[in-house]
Amino acid sequence: DGGITQSPKYLFRKEGQNVTLSCEQNLNHDAMYWYRQDPGQGLRLIYYSQIVNDFQKGDIAEGYSVSREKKESFPLTVTSAQKNPTAFYLCASSTTQGNQPQHFGDGTRLSIL
Amino acid sequence: RKEVEQDPGPFNVPEGATVAFNCTYSNSASQSFFWYRQDCRKEPKLLMSVYSSGNEDGRFTAQLNRASQYISLLIRDSKLSDSATYLCVVNILTGNQFYFGTGTSLTVIP
Known about the structure:
By secondary structure, chain A is mostly beta strands.
C-alpha cells in the first residue's frame, strides 16, 4: 500500500541534543512538508520541498533543519537551538499539481526529558 | 491577516442533528479546497475535496463560494463517530502551498 511512514512514533530529547525525525513516502510525490502542531493549535509549516535537493523555510523554521537527497525521504532535524521542541510533528506529501490534497504520516510526538 | 479562518467552536450537537461549518480564505488566487478530519492525537485525514459546483459524499456536503471567499461543510444526521476536529485547507498553486485553518471542534452528544 502506498503511504507515508514517520518514525519514531514517540521521541524523547535531552537538553542540548539534536534529534532527527524520519519521513518516507512511496506515493511518488514531488512535494513534501513538515508541520508542527501544539496542543489545541493548528498546523504550522516548518519546511517544505517541491523537488529533490531543494527546500524552503516555512513560518517557523528556526531551530530546525531538513534535507531532501532522495524523492522518497525528507528527514527533519530538531536542533538544540529549538528551545521549545515539545510538539506533535507531522510530515505530508503531495503532487505539485495543486489540485490534489496532501497525505499525512501518522506523526511523531517529541518530548523533552 | 490569516490566510484561512475558521470558527474554533466547540460545537456540541445531539445525535441526528445537522451542523454546518464555514471557513473563509483571504487569497483570491486560491485554487483548491479541502476538508480534513483530525481525531484527538492523530494525523489529519482527508474528508473531501471541495469542487466549484459543490459536492456530496453521503451525509457530508461541501460548498465553495468564490465570490465571498468561503467554503462550507454540512454534516447531516450527525453520528457519535463524527466527533472530531474539522480542518479546512486551501491550496494556492503558486509555490504549491497549503494553508490550514485552526480547526473546528465538533462533539456529537448521545
